[in-house]
Amino acid sequence: MENSRDAVDYRYTNNWFDQVARGNWDQLIPQLNPTRILEIGSYEGRSACYLIDRLAIEKSIEIHCVDTWEGGVEHHRAGPFAATMAEVEARFHHNLRLAIGKATFPVDCRIHKRSSDAALAQLLAEGKQGYFDFIYIDGSHQAPDVLCDAVLSFRLLKIQGLMVFDDYLFQEPLPQGVDPLRCPKPAIDAFTNLYSRKLRILTAPLYQLFVKKLSD
Question: Which domains does the chain possess?
Answer without folding.
Answer: 4-213 (3.40.50.150)
